[in-house]
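Team,

Forwarding the record for the chain on the shared tracking sheet. I've put the sequence and predicted structure together so nobody has to dig through attachments.
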Amino acid sequence: MVKPTYFLPTNFTLPEDTYKALNEDYHQTLLEPEEHIKNRYSIDVSSFYGPYKIRHPFGKASGQLSTNQAQVKSDLEGGLAFTVLKTVIAESEDHQSEMEAWKIKAPRMEVEKITSQNGEEGYTVTWKGRGWEKTLEEYLEFLEESLALAKNYPIIPSCKYHLPPLGEEYKVDEYIYTTQKIYQSWRKYREEELVLEKDFSATLAGTDLAGAKEQVLAWLTEVPAKIKEASDASIYLGVKLMNTMLPDEFQREMVKLLLGPDSNWLGDYAVCFNRLFDPNKGFAGKIGVAYGGYDLSDRNLWALEELLPNKPTRPISATGNICSGRLMLEYALRGAINGQLHTFFQLPQTEYAPIEGSRTQKAIHELLFNPSKGLVAGLLYIRDKLNKNQEPFSFIEVTKLNPNELNEVKR
């Protein structure tokens, strides 16, 4: 059991007039919340995802909620900052795939409360599926439909490529064919370099292969090169790092190796980290499933502390139990410039802000405006701690801070 250092209090305490203003905003629908935040509080919540400037740090992670155009359109209209599409399984020109087992059609999901080893109550979502269960051609149609929705909204394709056992050859033809096809679809709607995520599924953590340290490190270090060699095109590559079932210290070793000062890793950014894996839990007739909640965020935050007070040498896209603006800021203090959410969009309606609008709008409003644990409240709290009350303050500034400046608050 790991226990990270929490640099922020569980609930933010603000001056009475500031709290009153924020509580007022929390209870009303705002059409352009980011501009409102800038004008009323002198706070800039914008950030970046690869080459894109994004309106705030909250986007959607690859999964069951990004499998069709209607979902992506809802993300765009609901005020999300970006969407990572469901993970497609790489295939060769003759439509063969070494990772065929990851094509499972199992859309049913179950949301449930979960209590962490440290006693924190949160939520987790369980499902049986893995990657995109249809063909690559169908995925490319979906990608193009999504890219066509809005020119400046970041739509990020995600792919799972062949991962051979240690010492065996990679199916390079799958890397080449799939990467080139994704790039061709991308270029129909985007002029900038291809932004692509490489997914390492949480279910890999439960296999015998992923149980070996050497195997995991081989995949993490070799696969980025294979992807970039698969195309002459420029690729801005994100790699979703695994939470393995190896000892906790291995997560810190991984962080230091890939994101530390001496790294020569070819990933352009890291998604930290995918979900934990429980080999004994059953769901829909399957034994062994991934899970989240505070056990996940505790391990993720603890692992990223390996580099403090310095920051990672690659941008980080955080994922894992981002259930409040406060949790996003804890990741930001460890260098994360945005956060990918999945479970948070499926919670009971009582967990969201009391405003009119879609589920997505309510979720984003909750993350931004909750007066006790929202992003704006947290940024105001940090600005006060740093005695910068008369100055404009931004989310990006937090990602560059030494968190010890905040007079560490232990939970």
